[in-house]
Amino acid sequence: MALRLLVVVAVAAVVSCAVAADEGSVVEVWPMPATASKGGQTLHVSRELRMTAEGSKYADGEAILKDAFQRMVTLIELDHVINGSSQGLPLLAGVNVVVHLPGDELNFGVDESYNLSVPATGSPIYAQIEAQTVFGALHALETFSQLCNFDFASRLIELQSAPWSITDMPRFPYRGLLIDTSRHYLPVPVIKSVIDSMTYSKLNVLHWHIVDEQSFPIEIPSYPKLWNGAYSYSERYTMDDAIDIVQYAERRGVNVLAEIDVPGHALSWGVGYPSLWPSATCKEPLDVSSESTFQVINGILSDFSKVFKFKFVHLGGDEVNTSCWTSTPRVKAWLAQHGMKESDAYRYFVLRAQKIAKSHGYEVINWEETFNNFGDKLDRRTVVHNWLGGGVAEKVVAAGLRCIVSNQDKWYLDHLEVTWDGFYMNEPLRNIKNPAQQKLVLGGEVCMWAEHIDASDIQQTIWPRAAAAAERLWTPFEKLSKEWEIAALSARLARFRCLLNHRGIAAGPVTGYGRSAPAEPSSCIKQ
C-alpha cells in the first residue's frame, strides 16, 4: 500500500504568461545536471506547498526527508514576506517524492541519483521527484530550490521555464571538503554552517582534520588528558559535540571523515601525555619505540569507531621528519636493536597504525608520502590521498590502489592566488585512460587549511572556489565547461555565489583571488 506523507508550509505561487525559452539556453543550476530540458512557462509556488510521497517505499521514520523539505522551503523564501495574491490562478501545489529503497544508512557509494520533473500544466500541478535513496531525493530538493526565486512584482515565489525534466547523478562518489580545527578552533555552529553550504553544491564528505601539532581540541574518553593540548579550556569538542556534528551531517547526506595525523603533526598529544614525545626537547614525531604510543592510537580509534561511522578513517602520514628518532638516545638504541633505519621506522609506524584502524572496522586513507616511500608495502585497501602535485594519481591507480585527488597547486583553498577557474579545470582523471584504473579514483577534495583562517573568514575563503571543484566532481565530463567557455561559466558561478550570499553564506567575489573584497560598487552578479 502506497504511503502518503503531507507537509504543509508557508510559501507562494501561480502561472504567469509563458515565454519561449531559447534552445540550449543556460541552465541556472549548480552543479550542472547530467541532463536538463526546460520550457517557457513561469509558475509560482503555492503558499501551502505540499510534499507528498505517493508510491514511495521510504517511510521517513527519522524525518530526514520532511526536515529537508522544510529547509528547502525556507531557502526559497529567503526571508522575504510572501504576501501576494494568487487568487483565480493555477498553482504549483506541491512536490511528490518517490524513494524506491526503504533504508537511510549513508554508506559510501550510496546511490545519489535522481529524476526531477516540473510540469507546466495540471490540476493540481505537482513537481515529481524520483530517487533510489533518500539521499538522491535530498539532491533533487536542492536542485528544485535553485529553480525558484522571489518575484518582486507578485510578492510570490516563482519557478521559471517549466516544464522541467532533469536526470542527474554524481560523476564521483567522493566529493570532499577539508576543515582544520587544530590551527584555529571552529565553533560547532560554524562547522554546521559549512556542512549546510556543502549541500548547496552537492559535496558529500566533510574531512575533519581534527588535531595537529598546534592543538588537540577533541575529547578522547580513553585518554582524557589528550585534550589538555587544546588552545584553551573553551576551544574544545566533547564526544557528544562530535556525535551531534556527525548526525547533523548525515541527515544532510554528508559523511564525516575523521583524521588523526600520525606519526608527524602530533606535538599537541604530548601536552597531556609527555611520554608520547621522544624527549622533552624533541617532541615529534610520536615515539615509535614506545608501546604506549600505539595503545593511545588504539584508544583514540576505539573511541572514534563509536562516533565516526564513515567506512574510512584518515591516518595522515605526511611530512614526517624522523630526526628526533635518531637524536634521542633511547629511541636510537631501539632502532638499532630492531635493525631499523629511520625510513624503516616510518614505514613500521604507518603500517602498524593501519592494522589498528582495520581492527576497528575502518579502511584507511593516508597522505601520498606513504605511497611515495613504501607504496608496495601499504595495505592493499589503502586509499592514497594526493596533495603534493600532479601525476601522482596515475601512479597510484597503476599500482592498483585507490586515490583521492587534492593536488595543492589547484585544490588548496588556503592558496589564495589560485583563482576559481584553476579549481574548475583541475581534472582528477588527467592522463588516466584505462577504465578500470579510472574507477580507482574515488574523487577529489578541496582543502581549507586553517593557518590563516578562523570562524571570521572561513566561508569567504571556501566559496565560491570550492563550488568550481564541486561541479568538476559532480557533472559528467562531457557536460563540463571547456576553457574557451570561461565567460559563460563565470556568469553561472557568479549567480551561484549570489545565491550563497542570499542564503547567508559569506561567499567571496568570483573576480580576483581567493577571499578578495569587492573591487567597487556593483551588482553581486558582476563581482
From TrEMBL:
The active site is at 319 (proton donor). Residues 172-476 form the Glycoside hydrolase family 20 catalytic domain. It catalyses: Hydrolysis of terminal non-reducing N-acetyl-D-hexosamine residues in N-acetyl-beta-D-hexosaminides. One of its GO terms (biological process) is carbohydrate metabolic process. Residues 1-20 form the signal peptide. Its EC number is 3.2.1.52. InterPro entries: Beta_hexosaminidase_sua/sub, GH, Glyco_hydro_20_cat, Hex-like_dom2, HEX_eukaryotic_N. It holds the Pfam family Glyco_hydro_20. GO terms for molecular function: beta-N-acetylhexosaminidase activity. One of its GO terms (cellular component) is membrane. The keyword Transferase does not apply. Keywords: Glycoprotein, Glycosidase, Hydrolase, Signal. Residues 29-147 form the Beta-hexosaminidase eukaryotic type N-terminal domain. Belongs to the glycosyl hydrolase 20 family. This is Beta-hexosaminidase.
